[in-house]
Automatic annotation (TrEMBL):
CDD domains: GST_C_Omega_like. InterPro entries: Glutathione-S-Trfase_C_sf (IPR036282), Glutathione_S-Trfase_N (IPR004045), GST_Omega-like_C (IPR047047), GST_Omega/GSH (IPR016639). GO terms for cellular component: cytoplasm. Pfam families: GST_C_2, GST_N_2. It comes from Aspergillus turcosus. This is GST N-terminal domain-containing protein.
Amino acid sequence: MASQEWEEESWAIYDDRADEHIKIHYGWDEDRGYWIKVMDNRLQMDDGHFVTEMDRFRASVLDGGQEGCYLSAYTGPRGTGKKVRMEVMFDLWDIYKVPDEKKILMECRKMSEREVDEMCEVMEEEEDWSHQSGLATVKNKGLFCPFAHRPNLVRHVCGLTDIISLSVVRPYPNIKGEGLRFPKTNDEYPGATVDDLYGSEFLRDIYLRADKDYKGVYSIPVLWDKETETIVSNDSADMLRWLPNAFDPILPVVHKRVHLYPKDLRSQIDEITAWMQPDLNAGVYKAGGAASQADYDKAVPVVFRALNKIERLIHDNGGPFILGKHISEVDLRAYTTIIRFDPIYVQHCKCNLGTIRHNYPTINNWLKNLYYNVEGFRESTNFKHIKESYPKNQADINPKGIAPMGPIPDIESGVDHNWGLVPVGSIYV
């Protein structure tokens, strides 16, 4: 990478939800290229060290109306292999208001595609496990969770089911301090599987196997390296981006051609992701977890504006996918939320201004086409897990733990392949 002048600087990000400050330092040098360190006093350890410290990242600037920057790096004890993506901070912590924010984006924009690729190659060389068959497993995947659903879709769509094995936790109970639980037998709960590597009882056991001092959240999904016996990643957005082509050297040609983030669509994918993640993927949970009527009233219209955009995108691009003839990352991002919309988000998260099947005919047709006609979507979708997880785990929202019966059917049948004749719906907000 060519030498550039960029002095070390820092700024504070204010998180008004937790009334805390996060301190970020960033810079550039010959050895590391662009680097960034994050210090969050909510993650401070007993010895005074901070859990979150990132020292390398890959970046890409979002084109279009809203700027943003993807950062991917190790965080926490190196042995955990845990990664974070700064996209989450952009989306949920509103750091667009930070005065110095535009400077870091402008500096990132100066990086050439070759320089970014070189940076990624360095990271990939340090994680050489990806080119070895049968050495990885998606552990602790929950069939109920839209974010854990993403890497499982990648397994199917990109032909990785024989390379990456799968273990599935029960959707409930989610026990405080221990996390979700594996079934004791594969017959205990339909769709859930035992931990076939270690016989773990709880999700917590996997995290502690990677790092006995781990004190963070026991989240799903988890990508586990069977050879080094550690966590490679627990970030679904991270996996969605690099996992599709991580195993290309050992895949048949037909699967190597599956590019969910192709160069000719990247600017559109990045632009859509910039609003889809905060407004739809996270938006349903902002509505469902609203602490006040005002918060709820603010959150729900945002969700339906996002659905209105997707409805129009599919129509304008002529289907069968969001960006037209080729499936892409945004289809997977949207599917894992939208397949759950009518069964769970309408009632549990109170996103009830409309439903997919009754108010969005184009999205509904897109959804049915993916489910019935594209390998991996139906196979990775389990409506029992979807309907029983949140209602049985979130007593503050659903005190009696009663799971919804409908809608019936879970998803409608029949796909109209004449996309030009499918009407365009919307919800006025």
